[in-house]
Design brief:
The protein is built from 1 helix and 16 strands. By secondary structure, the protein is mostly beta strands. Strands 1-8-7-3-4 form a 5-stranded mixed sheet, with no helix packed on it. Strands 11, 12, 14, 15 and 16 form a 5-stranded antiparallel sheet that branches. Keywords: Membrane, Transmembrane, Transmembrane helix.
């Protein structure tokens, strides 16, 4: 019986100054691997890379000789007989900021999450923030920008019920590079009709009060 291949995924973020050169290293812990490198451009198109170096059966490197665009993603895929390694390198221009933007959950439904943005120094939160989120078992990130101040609340909408999401809320560093933030994990509610039923109950009660009021007024008159 064929053994199902295990897949291991990891991400590494790298910040480069102008004109820097970096060697990206892809390595498997055991076994003999086959390697292939890819690049994803700013238009989210993936291209195969041929000019990489295989140092051994377990290790391959890719040399980046130029400063990347604002954000570039390189991916190495390594296959062995029983496992597959997928490692992504996210390259940024500039340097990592030391200030961390944090978020906390303030509202949750089956299809949305309401999040509060906070930081120790309110001056470090810019007018716009980058929000990245994905399902924990999904490789693809969703991105959008939102206006923010310290204490702002924003919502992730059209989510799946009973699903856990990884979320990053970020700010530009002084070099105007890409973003940095902590990852947080929150799960939506399972019952998709809870909010809807609650709204119906409130409306029904209000309508009942309205009918009773008009009945009493009519009788008294």
């Amino acid at each position: 019986m064929n053994q199902k291949m295990k897949v291991y995924r990891s991400d590494e973020e790298i910040y480069l100054e102008s004109g820097a050169v970096v060697n990206l290293t892809c390595e498997v812990p055991i076994g003999s691997a086959r390697f292939q490198w890819y690049i994803t451009d700013m238009n989210n198109r993936t291209h195969r890379i041929e000019n990489f170096v295989t140092l051994s059966d377990r290790q391959s490197i890719l040399e980046i000789e130029k400063t990347p665009a604002l954000r570039e993603i390189y991916k190495c895929i390594a296959w062995t007989d029983h496992q597959k390694l997928v490692k992504r390198f996210i390259l940024h221009v500039g340097h990592r900021s030391d200030t961390i933007v944090t978020v906390s959950l303030v509202n949750v439904t089956s299809d949305s999450l309401g999040l509060l943005v906070e930081t120790e120094d309110e001056q470090t939160i810019p007018f716009h923030l980058l929000v990245r989120y994905r399902k924990v078992d999904d490789e693809h990130w969703h991105n959008f920008k939102t206006e923010a101040q310290n204490g702002s609340i924003f919502f992730l909408k059209d989510l799946h019920p009973a699903t856990k999401y990884e979320i990053k809320v970020s700010h530009p560093n002084p070099a105007d590079a890409e973003m940095v933030s902590n990852s947080i994990f929150y799960e939506t509610l399972a019952n998709k009709n809870v909010k809807h039923l609650a709204s119906i109950s409130v409306l029904s009660f209000a309508y009942l009060v309205h009918i009773i009021y008009h009945y009493v007024v009519t009788v008294l008159l």
